[in-house]
Amino acid sequence: MIREAVKAASAAQAAELGKKGLVYLAGGTYVNWAESELDADRVVMLEGVIPKDITEKEGRVEIGALCTLTEITESSLIPEALRLGAGFIPLRNIRNMATIGGNIAANRADSYIIPVLLALKAEVETFEDGRMSVYDYVKGEKSSLILKVIIPPFKGKIVVDRSVRSSAAYPSATVAVSVSSGECIIALGCISDHVMRLEDIEKEVASGKLKTEDEVFSAVHAEINPQDSLKETGPFRRYIASTLAAHSVRLCLGEGV
User: Which of 86, 74, 161, 152 is nearest to 120 (CA)?
Assistant: First the structure.
């Protein structure tokens, strides 16, 4: 429960308060979530000090960290794959509140946004640590204050997918696969503590060593080992994730979507 909320006057002040233990409050969907693991009794509000605009220059798209997921789904400047991923969140009231910066910072394994950002080789601009890839941010479990997200020009094929039991249920697995300029990226969610990349398999796909859907399925199935949850067994999610990844790779290497 939030007991103290401080309105930051600048990004610098927000970052300083973050160092003192206050939790960053963007849209609030994770901070106020009943199942959140955050101890968020003291928060610093970011509204007005962190950008939320979307701009494009020479094929590079820059998204302010406080841009909501609804704004992402509705902007023609945003790559279609990212608009699709943001739209996977079924409740519009959540999309109206949740921000792209908050989604990355929460670093949830079931994020619909992070796999797409990894596949697009997106970066974040942070106040304390400058620019880094979204992959390095989530893999390193960073807590730097995110100012904006940068998506470089992308030429290639990308497939985004997920498996859900119902439209409002949490996903069993999420995936984003991209193939461009002899490089492959396979990002999986709901399999580990955070969204993960299958870097060894990516190299084998890019080199042509793995060519068929069955070969990719077998490689992914051997690589991942999700644990049981209250709703699903680890072997079930292992099969679902392997199937999604293999099918997405086939679409990227074939006609794509």
Answer: 152
Q: Which domains does the chain have, with CATH numbers?
A: 4-151 (3.30.465.10), 156-253 (3.30.390.50)
Q: What is the phi-psi region of residue 11: left when phi exceeds 0, alpha when psi lies from -120 to 50, beta otherwise?
A: alpha
Taken in order 55, 60, 62, 63, the sign of the CA dihedral is: positive
Q: Are strands 123-126 and 146-151 parallel, antiparallel or unpaired?
A: antiparallel
Q: Measure the CA–CA gap between 185 and 248, rounded to whole angstroms.
A: 11
Give 123's contacts (C-beta < 8 A, 6+ positions apart).
131, 132, 133, 134, 149, 150, 152
pTM (2 d.p.): 0.93
| Strand, coil or helix: 126 | strand
Residue 107 phi, psi dihedral angles, 5° rounding:
55, 45
pLDDT per position as a tens digit, 54-110:
999 999 999 999 999 999 999 999 999 999 999 998 888 888 989 999 999 999 999
